[in-house]
Amino acid sequence: MKLQHNLGGLEGLDPINTEVQVFVEPWEQRIFGIHTAMMALSNQLGSSPPQYAIEEVPTTFESFWTWGHLRMGAENMHPFEYFRLRYYEKWLGGISGFFVSEGYITQEELDTRTAEFLASSELAAAPLPQGGEPAIDEQVVKYLREGDSPMRALSAPPKFALGDQVKIKEVNSGEHSRLPGNLKGKIATVIKVYDNAFAYFFPTTDGIGEPMPVYSLAFQAETLWEATTTEPNMIYYNDIFEAYIEAA
């Protein structure tokens, strides 16, 4: 398990960042926009509710890209790099690596262009390209308004019910996980069984992907952290995919 999968169980991560601005630097807004456009043009949207006519959008981006891919790019980093880099720097690294892996640009081309920008303040300050394809703009705006839902109909009844005592499995996180590492092996109580199943963007090595039930679980905080860092009767809640749960 990588350190970045276990942030809830780590101590001594001070100083805490109290930055309140969403975007600190102008380039961070651009990275957010690039990621949003990639999600809005992702090739799986034709089969993901609400089912966009993505094949009719005149884009040269033909890949599968979601929040999950962005998170996986960050989680794949060496832990030292993960903790060293700022939030949107992780995004930049994940997106850049994806474009290289998908063949949109080579690593050599990316390195050359990066060196050119770093060497020329005039080039770095140049205005962004203008114009574009209106149909792409319309698709991005539509996606921002409607999104794509992971909610699906249940194909089988949930394995657990309200009030059940369950245990979080000791699964191998692999490249990407939606399970906080400090919950592994811990006991919790089911306090809500959601009415629908929920899919994840793509199959992960630790068991999620296909639509499955999701539960809201209540943990005694003192079983997760030292008693001196919690308050009496403090409860911690987390929504967990069924693949990560077994009977206590």
From TrEMBL:
Catalytic activity, EC: 4.2.1.84
Residues in the signal sequence: none
Keyword Transport: no
Classification via Pfam families: NHase_beta_C, NHase_beta_N
GO molecular function, one term: transition metal ion binding
Annotated catalysed reactions: an aliphatic primary amide = an aliphatic nitrile + H2O
Alphabetized UniProt keyword annotations: Lyase
Listed Gene3D superfamilies: 2.30.30.50, Nitrile hydratase, beta subunit
Every Nitrile hydratase beta subunit-like N-terminal domain range: 1-129
Stretches assigned to the Nitrile hydratase beta subunit domain: 150-246
EC category: lyase
InterPro entries xrefs: CN_hydtase_beta-like_N, CN_hydtase_beta_C, CN_hydtase_beta_dom_C, Elect_transpt_acc-like_dom_sf, Nitrile_hydratase_bsu
Task of the protein: NHase catalyzes the hydration of various nitrile compounds to the corresponding amides.
Similarity comment: Belongs to the nitrile hydratase subunit beta family.
NCBIfam families per record: nitrile_beta
Name by which UniProt lists this protein: nitrile hydratase
Origin species: Phormidesmis priestleyi Ana
Organism ancestry: Bacteria, Bacillati, Cyanobacteriota, Cyanophyceae, Leptolyngbyales
Gene: nthB
